[in-house]
């Protein structure tokens, strides 16, 4: 049975989430503050975690950052009343895999947890992604090009991983938003273009093959 850790101080929300996940077939552990949640995340065996941001004793973002710094790879979904674009970007860049704003649909929450777990299982089956002289080690989260290390932020890593898993295919802006960010932005935002530009600066080399291509009117590709 898959086990989900819920770190949530609001009793009503926690009771709702715990009950729904148990009915969906998950085992659950509930922690009511950040310190208790961080300890559980470090010492328990969980298939995924649902973490609130505003918690007593320790906030959710610091929990996620410390867990990632220590090499914890469980999928983490932020469940927060803060639903602004800035808050979502901050959470994803801090190491979360997905972000769901309150109020939320429990059906959507369960579907997102299932999707995160499937993605984690797929990643475990593949230890390394390669394209041309670009190598991504999925176990250590290290990226190299022509043997030289490439330093990436967590969201840049996820974006590159998505492109590498779809190498040779064009992925649209909306596909990237859905699979990498996990939700839709205002259509006027340039968040994808901005991240692609930063990633290009780190991956593409003037003297070598330019790996990340823009296909005008369609999207992006490793080609």
Description of the structure:
There is one protein chain. The protein is of the alpha/beta class and 223 residues long. The protein has helices spanning 11-23, 34-43, 60-69, 85-93, 106-125, 154-165, 173-181, 191-203; strands spanning 3-7, 27-31, 48-51, 76-80, 98-101, 128-131, 134-137, 142-145, 148-150, 212-215, 219-222. It folds into two domains: 3-124, Rossmann fold, CATH 3.40.50.2300; 127-222, Orthogonal Bundle (Arc Repressor Mutant, subunit A), CATH 1.10.10.10. The protein contains eight helices and eleven strands. A five-stranded parallel sheet has the order 2-1-3-4-5, with helices on both faces.
Question: How is this fold's topology laid out?
Answer:
Blueprint lengths: L2 E5 L3 H13 L3 E5 L2 H10 L4 E4 L8 H10 L6 E5 L4 H9 L4 E4 L4 H20 L2 E4 L2 E4 L4 E4 L2 E3 L3 H12 L7 H9 L9 H13 L8 E4 L3 E4 L1
Mean pLDDT: 87
Distance between the termini: 41 Å
The CATH architecture of the largest domain would be 3-Layer(aba) Sandwich
Biggest pleated sheet:
5 strands, parallel
User: Could you give me the name of the CATH homologous superfamily of the largest domain?
Assistant: Response regulator
Per CATH, the class of the largest domain reads: Alpha Beta
Supply the number of structural domains: 2
As a whole number of angstroms, the C-alpha radius of gyration is 18 Å
Helix segment tally: 8
DSSP helix fraction: 40-55%
Beta percentage is: 15-25%
Number of strands: 11
Helix/strand-derived category reads: alpha/beta
**Widest beta sheet: strand line-up:** 2-1-3-4-5
What is the element string, with H for helices and E for strands? EHEHEHEHEHEEEEHHHEE
The low-pLDDT segments are none
- Looking at how many chains there are and whether they match, the oligomeric state comes to single chain
CATH topological fold name of the largest domain: Rossmann fold
